[in-house]
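Exercise (ungraded).
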Amino acid sequence: MAKYWHEDIETMPREDMRKLQSERLVAQVKHVYEHVPYYRDLMDKKGVKPDDIQSVDDLHKLPFLSKADLREAYPYGLLATPLSDCVRIHSTSGTTGKRVVAFYTQHDIDLWEDCCARAITAAGGTEDDVCQVAYGYGLFTGGAGLHGGSHKVGSLTLPMSSGNTERQIQFMRDLGATILCCTPSYAAYIGETLHDMGLTPDDIKLKAGIFGAEPWTEEMRRSIEKSLGIKAYDIFGLTEISGPGVAFECAEQTGMHINEDHFIPEIIDPETGEVLPEGTVGELVFTSITKEAFPLLRYRTRDLCVLSRKKCSCGRTLIKMAKPMGRSDDMMIIRGVNVFPSQIETVLIEQGYSPNYLIEVDRKNNTDTLDISVEMTPEQFSDKMKDVQEKERSLAAAIKTMLGINPKVHLVSPKTITRSEGKAVRVIDRRKLHD
Amino acid sequence: MDTIKQFSVFVENKQGKMAELTRLLADAGIDLRTLSLADTRDFGILRIIVDQPEKAEDLLLENGWTFKVTSVIGIKVPDCPGGVATVLETLNDANVNVEYMYAFVNRTPGRADTVVCVDDEQAALSALRSKNIEILTAEEAYDI
């Protein structure tokens, strides 16, 4: 079994990688300066010329791009090649505002699919595998990316898209799928449906799952691994940079290797923009050094995470990023306290509850309220009123310990919280309506 | 049988939930012998005794209701002042804790049949018998 997809790149000595990155960065900055007036203006304003960028050490001199720039330049303002050279677009879900549209040349598609092939290979995928792609197909990059990666690897690809869960399980059984690619919340739902159908992990052949496109916790990983009888691998990406496969996990499961021959990562202080040293938590920034059509330089992801160059047992030398603690726009400020949904999820799963929950934030009498509805299993239900209330109280206390603020916990019947087939909606913040 | 099968069903505090549950049982021809509702702001626990417990259990399971089957004791309490007090004193003297209690719709003159859920059924049954307090059997409860 092949251990790597691109062994030379994935295990390249650090100095060689720096050299490769520097060469590519210098060329990319010239390409962007020449073809993207929007970015040229930003560089000119900052007084930076392409000649000032001689190696990766000069990266910090370049101006940042943010989501606001993408909106302002929508749709063609950051395009660096003629449209006739482009073969495809993808788009973000637009949940946090105007959609972002990204363009791809055939070269861009190829490198992206190669990144996904590296991820599938790291998860143990080969041409002998059957890869079930249950990410949404269409504008969303999830389906297309893993589909392309699976083709490259030569696995038999089941282009399921998301939804129709019983059919997913039927195909999984009939065609012996060994690798499942979807969002973690959908993987949890597939696991739940499998058990509802009276089946166990022994009835399927899945061995691995590649899950991403939304934040998920280590506790959720263990719960999915158990319910599907698999090893669950994290994958990271964003449409602005290409899609899934910007970073991927290996068997060590201690962070995701960034495909840094294509995407140079930096961690910055979100307030000052200053580059932070390795091992410090900050905002993740990517510079795309090989893409032709939509090459973003120093794009601020709003994801908060840590980078590490610690030696990995898998033999890859690619830098690793920790699971993002949350996108800075997922963060809620409730009664002055920073709250990430992932913190609440961690407590729920630790306390034995299902990953099906809904967080509702509102403002009543000028005070923020935090209501968390959690599904209870039939086994957790008790005939005694005080037992149920005690469960709500102890869960609320555990969440208070984690967050420092008191939530109101509501236990609800199983299967009453809407399941997601793609990115789960776990937070409803009604305070925005009042503003 | 000395103990009665009771269904405790978790009912979210949403409009129409109780109607939905009782209609489900009604359409299957299941008769409610008695019921009691404990409620909080968010949810309630509807406790019911029905004439066809096996059928009711399958039906609730198939329709995804969250419930527990609990065994409770039926007591034929004399319908006179001190009837309930005597029963409770008897249980108390035997160190039996009553979790909750409620009454059947009364059909036998002179008797107020009551349901109790206790922490120690065997102790409760022998204490009641020693005081000659009559137990309502499961068959009687389902068939009242």
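Further reading is listed at the end of the chapter. For now, observe: Chain A has a mean pLDDT of 92. The interface with chain B takes residues 376, 378, 381-385, 388-389, 410-416 of chain A (CB under 8 Å).
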